[in-house]
C-alpha cells in the first residue's frame, strides 16, 4: 500500500507506531536501550549487516554526521508505542531508517522472548509538519508523551529526549538545535512544553490518526 504522503528532503515528520493489539514492545531497561542504540547505529546508508557485524565485533560503528539518513529532533519510547520527530536528510531516509530499526528490533525481541509473528501494528504512521508552530507543538507532544499517556513524569523519564532539552545532557541521539534555538534556554522550553500537557491529554488520540 502506497503512503498518502511523500517524504521530502529537508522536511519534518511526526513518525509513530505501537505494538500489535497495543501489546508491550519494551519490557525492561535493556529493551529500551536496544532501540536507543539502534537509533544511532542504523542512522546511516551503510547496509544493516555491516553495522551488525561491526557492533558484534566491538567496533564503534556510530555513523558520522554527514552520513545520517535523518535528524532525530525528538523521541519518546513508551512501553507499548513510540514517537519520533524526524527530519529527512537523504532520499528515502526516513523509510530506510524506520525499516532498519523496526526490523532489527523485532528480530531482537522475537529471539529474546521466543516470540513469533508481528511485533508492530502494521507500517509506521507519519504526519508531515507544515509550519514552525506545528513543529514546536509536536516537539512538546513527543518529548512529554510519557506524561501525556500517564506512564511517568516527563522531566524524569529516561526514555525520551526531554531531559536533553532541559539539561546539559548532550547525547549523540538528538539534534535539538532547531527547537531549543527558538527559546532562551532549556527552562523556557520546559515551561512551554509542560504547559501543553493538559490539552494534549484530552486530545491525545487525535495525534495517532
Helix content estimate: 40-55%
Tell me the strand percentage band: 5-15%
Global geometry: globular
CATH superfamily: Transposase IS200-like
Kindly state the number of beta strands.
4
Highest-level CATH class? Alpha Beta
- CATH fold call: Alpha-Beta Plaits
In terms of per-residue confidence, which ranges show pLDDT below 50 for 5 or more consecutive residues? none
Count of the separate structural domains: 1
Number of helices: 8
The whole-angstrom Rg is 16 Å
Widest sheet: strand order? 2-3-1-4
End-to-end C-alpha gap: 17 Å
Largest sheet: 4 strands, antiparallel
Describe the structure.
- The protein is globular, with a radius of gyration of 16 Å.
- Strand 2 and strand 3 form a beta hairpin.
- The model has no long low-confidence stretch (mean pLDDT 88).
- The protein has one domain (12-208): Alpha-Beta Plaits, CATH 3.30.70.1290.
- It has helices at 29-41, 48-56, 93-112, 132-143, 145-148, 162-166, 177-180, 186-203; strands spanning 12-18, 70-77, 81-88, 125-128.
- The protein has a four-stranded antiparallel sheet.
- It has 209 residues and is an alpha+beta fold.
Q: Layout of helices and strands, plus pairs?
A:
Blueprint: E1 12-18, H1 29-41, H2 48-56, E2 70-77, E3 81-88, H3 93-112, E4 125-128, H4 132-143, H5 145-148, H6 162-166, H7 177-180, H8 186-203
Antiparallel strand pairs: 1-3, 1-4, 2-3
Amino acid at each position: 500500500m502506497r503512503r498518502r504522503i511523500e517524504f521530502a528532503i529537508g522536511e519534518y515528520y511526526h513518525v509513530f507506531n505501537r505494538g500489535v493489539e497495543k501489546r508491550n514492545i519494551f519490557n525492561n531497561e535493556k529493551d529500551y536501550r536496544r532501540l536507543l542504540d539502534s537509533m544511532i547505529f542504523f542512522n546511516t546508508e551503510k547496509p544493516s549487516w555491516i553495522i551488525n557485524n561491526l557492533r558484534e565485533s566491538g567496533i564503534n560503528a556510530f555513523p558520522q554526521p554527514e552520513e545520517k539518513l535523518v535528524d532525530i529532533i525528538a523521541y519518546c519510547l513508551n512501553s507499548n508505542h513510540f514517537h519520533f520527530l524526524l527530519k529527512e536528510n537523504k532520499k528515502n531516509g526516513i523509510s530506510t531508517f524506520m525499516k532498519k530499526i523496526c526490523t532489527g528490533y523485532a528480530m531482537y525481541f522475537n529471539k529474546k522472548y521466543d516470540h513469533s509473528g508481528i511485533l508492530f501494528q502494521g507500517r509506521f504512521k507519519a504526519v508531515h509538519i507544515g509550519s514552525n508552530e506545528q513543529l514546536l507543538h509536536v516537539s512538546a507532544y513527543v518529548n512529554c508523551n510519557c506524561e501525556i499517556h500517564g506512564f511517568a513524569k516527563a522531566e524524569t523519564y529516561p526514555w525520551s529526549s526531554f531531559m536533553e532539552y532541559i539539561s546539559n545532557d548532550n547525547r549523540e541521539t538528538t539534534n535539538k538545535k532547531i527547537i531549543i534555538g527558538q527559546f532562551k534556554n532549556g527552562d523556557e522550553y520546559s515551561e512551554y512544553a509542560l504547559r501543553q500537557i493538559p490539552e494534549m491529554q484530552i486530545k491525545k488520540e487525535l495525534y495517532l490518526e
